[in-house]
């Protein structure tokens, strides 16, 4: 990384070509050094089938390059033109209710249809051939926000692909029947083409089938992305990414596997600033050694028909950007440059209004640019510190919880994303530098690993964790983890599958504990417990009870155990402490095991103010200190700290950070 990028999504095809020079001049005045273009331009490039021209976009690239503004070029596959699908409902996306999508928005075509997929790859090939070596291009983006508006595809071609996928996975139908236990309710299949997708049925489909279909669809969209990558790489050596959002119906680990770097979109308002930290902490370790990009956010407020978010307070955008840069992002990019005059997102903020005057967000973008120029030399000369604590992200676990939200009921919903974010929030509130690491990621550098809501714990994952624990790590196996098998079935050998023996416990009961009046006591605190409960008893001499249930259903059984293993420990949390008292207990649990694990990257900060630790090549430390909650805060700095921008010595002790402000602190520079 030799620079920080500051840019905007640009749609010159929506405006007179004569406006382009004026746009570029204004971008230069603001200091923007990149734009993203192209994701919705298929009909501009190919207004009629086979009549393709990219001349307009080459002219745009030429002008941007002359102005020294780099370009992220997107493939235009999210918005196929009308000629591809008009009068051809067989080419369109079909939802689980059998409803066929129509032209008029985006993501309406079925990428499973062979003619649609072939047309997509043809336009990508034409584009890559034409501009793949253009000097303006910094990077490529595949499509735009896969599965933003749709979930699983039930087009007949998707279902046929599903049958082929099942045959490739199981080989013989009797293996599928055995794995899914299809003797139940006479579900037994004779051939793969008899296996239905999870469309409407009188009650519910087998959990194994529903989860498998989710994973099939997520694999298929990743394969579609891979095919586009292969086409581009034949004509361009620029890196490729995709802009994902964590709650879309994709397998994020698989999606990133064949990309060169990770990027994400997020539109947090002032009350959801923690989402910025979470997304950066997820994307930073996703592609080790490569900086990630923050590809879309709003300059003032998000908006579409019927809804607009709260406008950002002054200063929020700048700290959103500085925190992202501090946490490892190379770029921040806004949607969008000029407010749209037509379409369905008319209320959305932009840098320039439709009448080409500075918007309410213009001055805030200028603040980001001033901050970027100040911190760029420091960010380029350093890298994020390696986290010592992490929360596990399991895409299979997420799919299983979408099929079966264990512990959920009306009034107590269970959501994978929210639960993982809550555990991440506990580390954040404790001042611990942290990652969100994919299930398949290495555990290098970690001392503490928390794995929530991963129903299936595979032998490969457990082997990796055992090596980590024996070397001194602490693994917290959080509620619902281990409760299901690989095929979304219930383990028959132990309540937590392989975890029971590894943790030296016996799962006595497995049941929903919400609403039973049960409490748990640990670390001298008592709190209600909720969600899905695995009530435990020690099954090994080196396993001790840390927390006990007070419950009519499971009196005296454990909900928190610890087993020493090698130099480390295995901790099982069998039920989730709930409410305000539960939050205190969980904070105590995190603090206790962070200390036991020997966490050193832990900082004393007030809530809403974070430290992004970084390290220079010669081992010096930088802290990017940011107040994100708008309340101002303090951090404690050690002796010998300096203001890294001015070189001024800072006194040891509390350092105040005003509302929506930031500092860069040098540690060990004297």
Mean pLDDT: 97
CATH topology of the largest domain: TIM Barrel
Q: Major sheet: size, sense and barrel closure? A: 10 strands, mixed
CATH architecture of the largest domain: Alpha-Beta Barrel
SS field, number of helical segments:
17
Shape: globular
Q: Care to count the β-strands?
A: 30
CATH superfamily of the largest domain: Glycosidases
What report would you give on this structure?
Strand 25 (609-616) and strand 26 form a beta hairpin. It is globular and about 75 Å long. It has three domains: 5-81 and 96-147 and 221-380, TIM Barrel (Alpha-Beta Barrel); 389-597, Rossmann fold (3-Layer(aba) Sandwich), CATH 3.40.50.880; 609-667, Golgi alpha-mannosidase II (Immunoglobulin-like), CATH 2.60.40. By secondary structure, it is of the alpha/beta class. It is built from 17 helices and 30 strands. The model has no long low-confidence stretch (mean pLDDT 97). Helix 5 (114-131) packs parallel to helix 8 and helix 11 (316-326) runs parallel beside helix 12 (362-380). The two termini are 26 Å apart. The longest helix is centred in the N-terminal third of the chain and has 27 residues, at 207-233. The strands form six sheets. Strands 14-13-15-16-23-22-21-18-19-24 form a ten-stranded mixed beta sheet, with helices on both faces.
Mind sketching the topology for me?
Elements: E1 5-9, H1 20-30, E2 34-37, H2 42-45, H3 55-66, E3 70-74, H4 82-85, H5 114-131, E4 137-141, H6 156-170, H7 173-180, H8 207-233, E5 240-241, E6 243-244, H9 252-257, E7 263-265, H10 274-283, E8 292-297, E9 303-304, E10 307-308, H11 316-326, E11 329-334, H12 362-380, E12 382-384, E13 389-393, H13 395-403, H14 416-429, E14 434-438, E15 448-451, H15 459-470, E16 474-477, H16 498-503, E17 505-512, E18 519-522, E19 525-530, E20 532-538, E21 543-550, E22 558-565, E23 568-573, E24 576-577, H17 579-597, E25 609-616, E26 621-627, E27 633-637, E28 642-643, E29 653-657, E30 662-667
Helix pairs in contact: 5-8, 8-13, 11-12
